[in-house]
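Step 1: inspect the first sequence and its tokens.
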Amino acid sequence: MQTVFSKFAKNDYTKYPFLKEAAKYLRLPDLRIEDLANSELQEILNRAEERVEEAILYVRVSRNPRRTEDIEILSFTVAILLAAATQSTFIQKRYALAEAKQAYEDFKLEPKEKLLKIAQNFEWKLALNNGERIPYPFAVDFTVYLRNTASLREKKWKLNNRTLTNGKVYLTGNEASRLLAEEVRRHVEKRTETRDLPKLPQRVLEAVERIKKLSTEKIGNTEMESFPKTVTQTAFPPCVQVLYQAFSSGRHLSHVGRFTLTSFLINVGMPSETVIELFKNISDFNLRMTRYQVEHIAGERGSGTRYTTPKCDTLKTHGVCTNPDSLCRSVRHPLGYYRRKMVQKR
């Protein structure tokens, strides 16, 4: 008979503040944005800023038992607000990834029954497998499985490499934890993407600016400063124009050409999903592999490092530099070209 996990404890919500029931355990359930201007709540704002900073620097969100449970739970909500207020896709995705990675480490230590309860929070059809013939402790509905493996590159996640019976995919404990972490990533990322933000107190705005500055330093790409949020194709350098037009028409590009185009588009502000759509024109398009590669370059996967576009000298070496114009002679990097072009257009 399947054991039923009865109830989360408050310390569970400090680890998993994304759970729907977490808000019920707050001592300050009616916290408003304007309240963050009060010095009494400075510790919550400080911890929220720390959460996002840890995500940028380490792609993790630490667990510190010395902090009160209320601060940990409330700071999660405020951290989402800070990430959203930066209006930086990189920061938003990075924060979501960090929360998911830390959740994964915690999930792996939980008993099976608690994982079932966490899965219910996301309306998963996850169950314990008590059958002796299939040596896996969990079984999940294949639709849930497909949704949460779409961006996972390893061959073991392909459906034809799994044990599938009666619409159920069987998982180890670590595999169930990994897919739950992927659910957490998408959940947090979606919450940070809101653009309908209220007026923020000065204390909050100052925290947002510190986070943006840290992100720029971490990325190490000064050319990213001042880039507008709208990508302007007419400002692309000649080499990128050629790559973009070739790719848009479905023509094959070399590995260096693909990396150059992808990293350039990501760094000038094109969302990863839009870049992935561009890849669909290529005959050898593979969604799983393309998503992994694009999001890896964008710093949304793996080490969390965003890759910059190769310098002009490197592109010349690999034969990617094409049709240089007069502006090309005064820059050393494709992103520098784009930035200058954008300044000229103002």
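Step 2: inspect the second sequence and its tokens, then contrast the two.
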Amino acid sequence: MPLPSSHATPCPTERDRQALQGTWEQIALEDSGIANPPDEHSAPGALTTIEGDRFQVMTLDGKVLLEGCFTLDARTTPKSITWIDAIGADAGKSLPASYTLEDERFVFIAADEGMPRPTHFSTTPGQTMRTFVRRA
């Protein structure tokens, strides 16, 4: 009897978690229906690094703008992600979000804590959408 393969195909959530690992550059922001407003969690050239289920946003000179953790569920439609910031105004809050991840492009739309998880990738009041591309 053959032994089960130790190289089993990971579930969709684990595949997405693996695909998110690394460094990402934000290329667009929409907040409450406004495109590219001033934002305390990003700066020109700031990079988001994802390691495991943790994230950190840093400026090019090394200043930490935001950090925290997240959980994914790629089985939902749209795919779900919940952000929990460790610092800043939203520290400790669970921010419900949805995401798309295609090749080198990652987009998420998050709502304020207590709001329903967004299902459309266009913001309304209390929602923020960020678009990233993988940084080599």
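Step 3: confirm your contrast with the notes below.
The longest strand covers residues 22-31. Residues 71 and 82 are 5 Å apart (CA to CA).
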